[in-house]
Amino acid sequence: MKPLAICSFALAALPSLGAPTVNYDEAKVPDAPLPDALSAPGGTFKASNALEWESRVRPKIAEFFESEVYGRRPPRPERETFEIVESSDDALGGKALRRQIKITLGGAKGEKSFIMLLYLPKSPAPAPVFVGLNFMGNHATADDPEIIMPEWVRNTRLGGIQISDNRPTEKYRGLQSRRWPYEKIISKGFGAATIYYCDIYPDLEKADGAPQSVYSIFKEPMNGAIAAWSWGLSRALDALETVPQADAKRAVAVGHSRLGKTALLAAAFDARFAGAVSNDSGCMGAALSRRQFGETVEIITRQFPFWFSPELRKWAGREAEMPADQHQMLALIAPRPLYVASASEDLWADPRGEFLSLAEASKAYALFGAKNVPSEADFGVEKPFAGDVGYHMRRGGHDILEYDWENFCNFFSKALPRAR
């Protein structure tokens, strides 16, 4: 594969959203060499084969991202119970099975519960499942009156409805169904499982939600919302392992935006996930930090300090000095299939930086025998690349839509049998 240059590509800029010093000009991208994808952070040793990668490099890269970026994920809870609180074998107009599972987690300081919504195709064999968190509550993902509403929702505006008292309403039901095209997913032979992300760690705008989060059941103090959300995806996987109609060994972590960062972290640190999807995950997700294009470490740690380890803030404005970059985070998922998706107008998330990151991470996949990996010619609007890893850039802005899911399903329909 020929080296990829960080050069210009014609994209429409998004508003800066009031963030300071936002760069959308490729000519102003710093000339900062990337750490070698196959080398440990700050080290000189470079893996030349899969064994060296797994034993000498990968653990050090994982340690960097735990300590300096996301914080450490909690341990497995002392107690877990899974209760099917609602079910139907005739959901989505008779096309699917529906299960709503109450997941209860116990620790030294109490218990925490949340509901996982699961749709599965009616098929004789257990189905692979996309597992992801949602932004507005399970009931917002489909216009289905049987979906249980959360007790608390994040204050926001959605579909012209202002939520200001943290209470979900019936008007909220199905307002984000475009992001969760369950019938399309089912028709492709996949199931879909989702949990409301704020049930795991409340994403408060001006305060840390840790006291109300899953961290509250543990004795040890913990921090980092993304680490908690990714841990929640692992608990969803625990629940899937109890559902006979779901193939938990072919579960794919999926997420959009901050929840795309979450899906990457979950797959990187829980090898039970058969693969991962990052959609518009941007800064501290799939995009290269050194480019300082769109959202940066300074901006994200100023606006969302509770998402990460407190250590990340020290790298604000010093991205070129970081001993690792996000391509090495993506590489932690190798050799399991990985799909990165961008949107042409979502410059805030740096589509080019996401693509370059995946291309560099592919070097780790090559150690395991991958040959069909992306090159410069594969970067373009709506020309999906589906090889040993996958990529597409959808036309439009920051969102996850049916076009994205169509490509995720097509890629993993072929990739998952190779993963196990």
Tell me the β content. Answer: 15-25%
Sequence of secondary-structure elements = HEEEEEEHEHEHEHHEHEEH
Calculate Rg over CA atoms. Answer: 20 Å
Number-wise, the strands total: 12
Task: State the gist of this model.
The protein has 420 residues and is of the alpha/beta class. 25% of the residues lie in helices and 20% in strands. The chain has 8 helices and 12 strands.
Can you walk through the features of this model?
With 420 residues, this protein is an alpha/beta fold. It has helices at residues 50-70, 182-187, 225-240, 258-269, 297-303, 326-331, 351-367, 402-419, and strands spanning 79-91, 96-107, 110-121, 127-134, 156-158, 161-163, 191-196, 246-256, 275-279, 338-343, 385-386, 390-394. The chain has eight helices and twelve strands. It has a ten-stranded mixed beta sheet with strand order 1-2-3-7-4-8-9-10-12-11, with helices on both faces. Strands 5-6 form a two-stranded antiparallel sheet. The longest helix is centred in the first third of the chain and has 21 residues, at 50-70. The protein starts with 49 loop residues before the first helix and ends with a helix.
Name the features.
420 residues, disordered N terminus, globular, 12 strands, two-stranded antiparallel sheet, 10-stranded mixed β-sheet, alpha/beta
